[in-house]
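Handout, tutorial session.
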Amino acid sequence: MMKKIIFILFILIIFTFSFNYQETNLNFSTDSVEVIQNELRTVPIIINNVKDLYGFSFHIEFEPEFISIETVEEGDFLKKDKVETFFLYKVDYERREIIIGATRKGKINGISGSGNLAFIKFKLKTNNKTFLNFKEVSLKDSNLKDISFSSKNLIILPKTTDIPKISVEPNILIFQTLDQVLELKIKNVGKGILKGMIYTKDDWIAINKNSFEGDTTIYVAIKNAVNFEGSIMIESNGGNYEVKVRFEKSTFKKIVLQIGNQVAYVNDEPYLLPFPPFIKDNRTMVPLRFIAEQRGAQVLWYAEESKVLIIYNEIFIELWVDQNKNYVRLNGIFYSIEIPPYTYKGRTVVPVRFISEFLNGQVEWKGDTKSVIIIFNST
């Protein structure tokens, strides 16, 4: 009978000891997690069954080619009793680790129990399996003695079901005027819900929103005419995308002139001429300088020769004013002209077809409205 009593007592002692002793454990609340690419996820660092925890430090290994660490935030475990704490973290991409540390302030006891020590916010950059591994860990009690523990690492898996896939059109935005507003069309050509963020590091580019969900139109404008290329970055759970942005001043010109009308239209914008176009010997006469400068040409006057020199790219046109010379010289070669250039109301006038076609333009006559349309393309 006594042997049975001793045996029962022995079993009870073992059971009581096992019940009271529970190992301190560090974990990420789960062994693995499925993550959609570029989706912001938060994982906690949890401690279980600790006694008198005063401070801690972790080195957590990660793969920066697969994970982007956005931030690390302190948990509430060490300040459960409203005591102030000191918390810091550093993401060391070269050493491929996150360093996290915290301690309670003052000569006080530590905290016992279970709770959150920190929160790691990250994004999965690619659809690759990766991890967060406890590399170096130190747990200290209020006497600055080491606390023994075990730990479990985290496996991060790309989510393979209902994955969105981003499509962006166009892949380049070319502005030709400062008042333009261009559109970016963002579409989901995969499954699930597409969401993400859009941003630019170029302060001369303006976008109307910084985040999106679902199919979206982004409106883009520019603040300055620059001579270099910028970019708009789109990060989403369906992939990343870069859209190039640049300013190219358009040299396309559509000039509309009307006989007897002093107002000309250049790309639909009105311009006041020094006098209206007129007809002489069945030729429409126009101010030379207006047509040439709208083309982007340089007009030079040589008074001693009464000569005008027009320069546009590799085109050099020489003509003589008020000398009754019915010829001009184009890149060193003489060509005849229907009406010699002459001065009218203080301006040099020439036949519109001559000056336009010599500057690689196209001329169309509209007899019903007595209008001339000149088209200058970019070349």
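The second record follows below. Compare its token runs with those of the first.
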Amino acid sequence: MRSILSVRSLLFALVLLAISAASSAQIGFGVSIRIAPPELPVYEQPICPADGYIWTPGYWSYGDNDYFWVPGAWVMAPEVGYLWTPGYWGWGDNAYFFHEGYWGTQVGFYGGISYGFGYFGNGYQGGRWDNGHFFYNQSVSHVNVSINRNVYNTRVEETTVNHVSFNGGTGGVQVRATAQQESFANEKHIAPVAAQTERVQTARANPELRASANHGKPPVAAENVAARPNNETARPTAEAARPATETARPETEAARPAAETARPAPVVHAKDIPPAEHVAAPNTGNAKQDQKYQQQQQKLQTQQAKERQTLQTKQEQDHQRLPQKPANEAKQQPLEQKHQQQTQQLAQKHTQQQQQLQQRQQPASHATAPKPEEKGKPGA
């Protein structure tokens, strides 16, 4: 009897190990790893691209038997009034479990991890919502007042000064959730938006972001994400909440909201290129043909993500070689022009590739459809 139980226990352990190894990059609660994640790297926060974007800090995810770094990024909040609670690794049952992050009206427990930039282990001090608009705390958030006018300045003392990336266990942050934070966990939540999940997949496909390759120092620790959530069409209702004093702005400023919605974010660096749009799954009626076409689309998206990452790494290295001092402003301008040209060429190339692929797939996908002229042929 004992031998039978031992065999069952061994099989159960093997199944858990297989599930862990085959788990997706966007790890949810319940996936366990026996090796602790690396320390959090030190990096600079990129400038906030526009109003309504919330900082989502970088973190170590796990996939393909290795940790990989998911760069921090500014992400448009899915709804007005929602804040981001970062995910975190926690020790329990002799393994490290990842607790997925989420959007909610309150910032919940994230393991007491000090991710920086307003996330110092408890709550978020990088900004706050007020009358339907997000106000940024300049003391911990990198904002440009010519872009983000809703700002304030409140100094925050960082209570935890370390780079530990997990809670509990040996060497981990020894903090437990408060009763209030536990109550936040029972409130309405929104899962990570498409821009965030796509960022995880892109990071997983980049070998340079793997811990075994960068030894805990990823070459790209933060990036800009200009993508907006799918329900962005619901956001304009917040504009109605603007105070009456907004009408006192100059005439040129009053016309700004309409111009901003029609003007795409400036594409200067590879990190500014918006993620590729989701392509609908082929539906030709031929299962094998549809599978072939979908594989071609996935292959192209993976290739393009790798090219964007390669160019971004090269541009980051250019900036590192050029000292960031006012005296070098004359050298910075030509470099930025060069980067903008590189980025626009890559974006144009990727657009053309996607269009060509769709054109190659389109004729075959409609081959079985009746010809328009046959429907309207005289005497039919």
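Points raised in discussion: The chain has two domains: 16-244, 267-317+335-360.
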